[in-house]
Design a protein that fits this description.
The complex is a heterodimer of chains A (about 425) and B (about 260).
Chain A (H helix, E strand, L loop, with lengths): L11 E2 L2 E2 L8 H14 L3 H13 L7 E3 L1 H7 L3 E5 L10 H14 L4 E6 L3 H13 L2 E7 H6 L1 H9 L3 E5 L6 H14 L4 E3 L10 H9 L1 H12 L7 E5 L4 H7 L9 E9 L15 E6 L2 E6 L23 H8 L4 E6 H15 L5 H14 L7 E5 L8 H8 L1 H15 L1
Parallel strand pairs in A: 4-14, 5-6, 5-8, 6-7, 9-10, 9-14, 10-13
Antiparallel strand pairs in A: 1-2, 3-4, 11-12
Helix pairs in contact in A: 2-4, 3-13, 4-5, 4-9, 5-7, 9-11, 10-11, 13-14, 15-16
Chain B lengths: L4 H7 L4 E7 L5 H13 L4 E5 L10 H12 L4 H14 L4 E4 L3 H6 L1 H11 L3 E3 L12 H7 L3 E2 L2 E2 L5 H9 L5 E4 L13 H12 L5 E4 L5 H6 L6 E4 L1 H23 L10
Parallel strand pairs in B: 1-2, 1-9, 2-3, 3-4, 4-5, 6-7, 7-8, 8-9
Helix pairs in contact in B: 2-4, 2-11, 4-6
The chains are: A alpha/beta (about 425), B alpha/beta (about 260).
Bound molecules: pyridoxal-5'-phosphate.
């Protein structure tokens, strides 16, 4: 039997999506869906969200013309959507504020979340602190090690960080741990999922909260008398920043949308996170049907990326559908290219991007060179790179950095 | 007949004992022998889990066993071979339990046919809702002669529960609480109330599980459930002392209420 003809269309994007969860989660997902549907067009809720986005998150974020990068690439005009300037340093806050307001209206007192790079966890910790909710963040042990600055930031905001030692000890296992915790505490707890994936209604809800990115870009381009961008570029972990940028433009077939996946250190299984490549195929994992990196039996494969936020075996079901329909193109950028993108944006524009966003920069600069000057490209700088200083410095300035770390360690003794 | 679920529920004293093993933990031979020991010591039905990397509904003990079995390279086809071998010399109906991605990857039709060929009496796939994606999963497996065992949980809507039970051919599996698998000290009131609700909707027999860890739990469910499911506790016992310990525990659960002084 093929999975076709979904009974409830709205739970699916084409054949992807759905609500593949143990029966015990169904009531909680239905409660969430109901709350969300009743609030999304509620004027009071919309006003509250708009206010908190402006006053707390610092929206709208700027759309900056990257003059030096444009000159360097020698092709189309490159604009940067500066999600890195949103509070807590990434686009994640857009979704977090929406869901936190929702959770409060549902009467939940505790928020749980998973995090890879720590940016989602950080946004959740900040939102929970701001609104007086208890907060637990699940994080793979490996991610905790490589994103230590964010662990500290979350803790100082009062969140409890639970190290996940199971499986690959990265984002996928943090998602599973959060889902399991949710199952155990459904009455008090809202699971604030961090990307446009998971069981329905998360993929749709998260994408809607993130679409503020694309809507702002549209307005900001119009103010520059640019009727539409020619090409949009964003990195793709789960898919929330890319969908947020692309979604308001999907109806316009003239706008090319490119999602950049983590090519990692090679093409062998376990060395990358390219879902739309040789090892990715449709599967049902963590509550939804989408592309997953898996072996011949359906076991989920380990992943790798220099950026913790792109290091995930699954992908948004909506992106899976857009991929199959060829509405969004996908490319992969290696760890090394991403590090070069990181350095380049810092050197040319004085902006240090998150290593996730650096993937988009690396591809964008390459692609821009082949496009005429009259064209417009928007690259989403989904987050800023402070959290990655330790990784980037070790790769780009090894000797000095190690000496510094040793020195710091000595002084801390 | 090993795959006669209805007959088993009719003939055996209630509550039936249903046990769980992770196939391939610690290896295929051992897990097969454990199933045999279970049946020899009173298990009426055995649930055999095909290990998966991301067992969403399982607590730490069963998750770790899944992980270990996979590390040894156990594949679904090995599990089917093991089930086939067991059905040839074990009287208890065997149920294949796994997560949706395993049959999805294999193809649901092929998976259903593999279950049937191996002689499995039923299939349990907790993360595949009976009606999701327009699939009539219970119907598909029924066509191959394998019962679809739904997993019902407290909190679910009456309407949905009735629809599921109406289409159930083998028995229904009720979790006594919302949460992941794992041995617990007590059976909560919410779980017992829900069990009562399910049994009021007359229909298939009902097995209760999640948390059962003591012989007195089994006794407490005597008139409330047609079968009880013991999973994590048996795995803990296995880890502590092998199949022998598992067998001893099952014998305790089997004893008449009056004569048992066990406290688990
Ligand atoms: C800065 C940044 N960009 C991108 C991502 C990838 O996630 P998504 O594809 O959901 O936007 C993350 C995830 O942690 C992130 O922190």
């Amino acid at each position: 039997m093929r999975i076709t003809r979904p009974r409830a269309r709205s739970r699916f994007f084409g054949r992807y999506g759905g609500r593949f969860v143990p029966e015990m989660l169904v009531p909680a997902l239905e409660e969430l869906e109901e709350a969300y549907l009743s609030l999304r067009n509620n004027p009071g809720f919309k006003r509250e969200l708009a206010r908190i986005r402006r006053d707390f998150a610092g929206r709208p974020t700027p759309l900056a013309f990257a003059e030096n990068l444009t000159r360097k690439a020698g092709g189309c005009r490159i604009y940067l959507k500066m999600e890195c300037l949103a509070h807590t340093g990434a686009h994640k806050i857009n979704n977090v504020l929406g869901q936190i307001l929702l959770a409060r209206r549902m009467g939940k007192t505790r928020i749980i979340a998973e995090t890879g790079a720590g940016q989602h966890g950080l946004a959740v910790a900040a939102g929970a602190a701001r609104f007086g909710l208890r907060c637990t963040v699940f994080m793979g042990e490996i991610d905790m090690r490589r994103q230590r600055p964010n662990v500290f930031a979350m803790e100082i905001m009062g969140a409890e960080i639970v190290p996940v030692r199971d499986g690959s000890r990265t984002l996928k296992d943090a998602v599973t741990a959060a889902l399991k915790d949710w199952i155990e505490h459904l009455d008090t707890t809202h699971y604030l999922l961090g990307s446009a994936l998971g069981p329905h209604p998360y993929p749709r809800m998260v994408r809607e909260f993130q679409s503020v990115i694309g809507r702002e870009v549209k307005r900001q381009l119009a103010a520059l008398r640019i009727s539409r961008p020619d090409i949009l570029v964003a990195c793709v972990g789960g898919g929330s920043n890319s969908l947020g940028l692309f979604h308001p433009f999907l109806r316009n077939g003239k706008v090319r949308c490119v999602g950049v996946e983590a090519g990692g250190r090679g093409s062998r299984p376990g060395d990358h996170a390219v879902r739309f490549g040789a090892h990715g195929r449709p599967g049902i994992v963590q509550g939804y049907l989408s592309y997953f990196l898996q072996d011949r039996d359906g076991q989920i494969l380990p992943t790798h990326s220099v950026s913790a936020g792109l290091d995930y075996a699954g992908i948004s079901p909506e992106l899976a559908d857009l991929h199959d329909r060829k509405r969004v193109e996908f490319v992969a950028v290696t760890d090394r290219e991403a590090l070069e993108g990181y350095r380049l944006l810092a050197a040319e524009e004085g902006i240090i991007p998150a290593l996730e966003s650096a993937h988009a920069v690396a591809y964008g600069v390459k692609a821009a060179a082949d496009l005429p000057r009259s064209r417009v490209m928007v690259i989403n700088i989904s987050g800023r790179g402070d959290k990655d200083l330790f990784i980037a410095a070790r790769a780009l300035d090894r000797g000095n950095w190690l000496a510094f770390l040793k020195d710091e360690a000595d002084r801390a003794e | 007949m090993p795959n006669d679920i209805a007959g088993t529920f009719l003939r055996r004293p209630k509550p039936l004992l249903m046990t769980h093993v992770v196939a391939g933990y610690p290896d295929l031979d051992e897990s097969r022998k454990t199933v045999e020991t279970m049946v020899e010591n009173g298990a009426d039905l055995v649930e055999i889990q095909i290990p998966f990397t991301d067992p969403l509904a399982d607590g730490p003990v069963i998750t770790a066993a899944n992980r270990a079995a996979l590390a040894r390279g156990v594949r679904p086809k090995d599990v089917f071979a093991m089930v086939r071998r067991l059905t040839q010399n074990t009287a208890a109906p065997l149920l294949v339990m796994t997560y949706a991605n395993i049959p999805h990857r294999m193809g649901f039709e092929r998976f259903a046919s593999a279950c049937a060929e191996a002689g499995a009496a039923g299939v349990i796939i907790p993360d595949l809702a009976f009606d999701e994606a327009g699939g009539d999963w219970p119907g598909l497996f029924r066509r191959y002669g394998t019962a679809w065992i739904p997993v019902l949980s407290p909190g679910m809507q009456e309407e949905r529960m009735r629809r599921i039970l109406a289409g159930t051919s083998g028995f229904a599996y009720v979790t006594l609480r919302t949460g992941t698998t794992g041995a617990r000290l007590r059976i909560g009131k919410a779980g017992l109330d829900f069990l009562g609700r399910v049994r009021e909707v007359s229909g298939p027999p009902v097995a209760a599980g999640f948390g059962i860890s003591r012989p007195e739990h089994v006794r407490a469910l005597r008139n409330k459930a047609d079968a009880v499911v013991i999973g994590s506790r048996l795995l803990e016992l296995y880890n502590a002392g092998g199949a022998k310990k598992v067998g001893a525990f099952l014998r305790l659960c089997r004893r008449e209420p009056e004569s048992s002084s066990a406290s688990g």
